Amino acid sequence: MGSTFSLCRSDHALTTEEQKTRDLDNMLQHERTAAALDFKILLLGAGESGKSTVIKQLRNIHRGKASMTKEEIESYTNVLHTNTIQSMRVLLRACESFNIEMTKDEQEAAAAVDEHDENELMTLDHAIHIDLLWRSQPIKDAIAHRHEIYFPDAAMYYFQNVFRFVELGYVPSEEDIIMARIRTTGMFMTNFDSPPVHWRIVDVGGQRSERKKWIKFFDDVQGILFVVNLAGYNQVLFEDQTKNRMNEALDLFEKIAKVPCFENTPIFLFFNKKDLFEEFLRGKNIDCCFPDYKGKPETQLALNYIAEQFERRMPKNHRVANVHFIAARYKKDVKYSFEDIKKYLVQKNQHKINKAMKSIGR
Ligand SMILES: Nc1nc2c(ncn2[C@@H]2O[C@H](COP(=O)(O)OP(=O)(O)O)[C@@H](O)[C@H]2O)c(=O)[nH]1
Ligand SMILES: [Mg+2]
């Protein structure tokens, strides 16, 4: 009996030691496997190119209704109200700069918009003023100068929907949330699983002041997704209203593509805001930004030309992995183009993925 007991004790002690080692081995193996199956994509691009919109869509696609809490959704009411007021104020300032005159009624509506405290929600009265203004001739004249001033791309959406925003019990819809604009500062990481890979998408602020922080996120990157605002060929920067947005995007793209640690990193390009681009192209050809362009103002011709200008900024021996022309405001555009990126990266890393899967016996 005694011997059995002692045998059991020593056996048990040995097993514990072994188990500890085995647990540690398993844990390390697990970590190595997890790291091998963890893909980080860095989202880069100038301010307002649509990086955060792409992220919002990816969250919707991969997490569905669970992508936001009720509180998060409700917090967008305030954002949309502020976006609406600020967009109208931009146009009111433009009326002053371009000496556009207003009637007495329009002046009163403008004063009410100017006096609104941004910490408060808009009322029905504010909505009536905004609606009166954006249908008025002076504001139409100011909008005609949109390519010379900083003007938010979703402004028309805010004006069109202003009455809905102030309805009693209003809850922002998925589309409202997509069109809402919050300027990103710092870094936001979004994770989702698409087995066997765990994807981590890093979103950063795009304005010039924010770009100094980017280098901190350059390690261990499987891919770079660079977002370009196509409508930028006909727009100036928020932070420097003398600089064309498309030229800024080209310069920034070249700098990123030439960072030595990205020498072998796949670079994907999303040319975004195709909807606005098509609208602008009806009024102005891209030769205003690319004097060497001799083609017609035809969408596909112009898009191919722009894509080529970006491709040319790549360093020797490194080509853009793939290019998509999208409107990130539409979920399906982001879904299909991101599927392509996933497919590309899974194929490129297939060997590493297989090895990791084998090590966990799958
Ligand atoms: N018209 C239009 N607006 C868009 C599109 N994608 C994004 N936006 C709007 O552009 C603004 C800036 O987008 P955001 O994602 O914040 O840009 P970021 O600074 O690069 O993160 C937001 O108000 C978006 O709703 C698009 O495809 N079409
Ligand atoms: Mg952003």
* SSE run: HEHHHHHHHHEEEHEHHEHH
CATH topology (fold) name of the largest domain = Rossmann fold
Largest sheet: 6 strands, mixed
Overall pLDDT confidence: 89
Identify every distinct bound molecule in the structure, by name, code or SMILES: guanosine-5'-diphosphate, magnesium ion
Annotation, overall tally of beta strands: 6
Secondary-structure arrangement, i.e. CATH architecture of the largest domain? 3-Layer(aba) Sandwich
**What's the number of helices?**
14
CATH superfamily of the largest domain: P-loop containing nucleotide triphosphate hydrolases
Binding site for Mg(2+): 52, 184
Pfam family, one: G-alpha
Organism: Hirondellea gigas
InterPro entries: Gprotein_alpha_su, GproteinA_insert, P-loop_NTPase
How do you describe this structure in short?
The protein has 362 residues and is α/β, with parallel strands linked by helices.
Description:
The chain has 362 residues and is of the alpha/beta class. The chain has 2 domains: 40-67 and 184-359, P-loop containing nucleotide triphosphate hydrolases (Rossmann fold), CATH 3.40.50.300; 70-179, GI Alpha 1, domain 2-like (Orthogonal Bundle), CATH 1.10.400. Helices cover 51% and strands 11% of the residues. It has helices at 2-36, 51-63, 70-97, 104-115, 124-134, 137-143, 155-160, 162-165, 174-179, 245-257, 274-281, 299-312, 331-348, 350-359; strands at 38-44, 187-194, 197-204, 223-229, 267-272, 322-325. The structure holds guanosine-5'-diphosphate and magnesium ion. Residues 45, 47-53, 152-154, 178-179, 181, 184, 206, 272-273, 275-276, 327-329 line the site of guanosine-5'-diphosphate. Residues 51-52, 184 line the site of magnesium ion (MG). It comes from Hirondellea gigas. Mg(2+) binds at residues 52, 184.
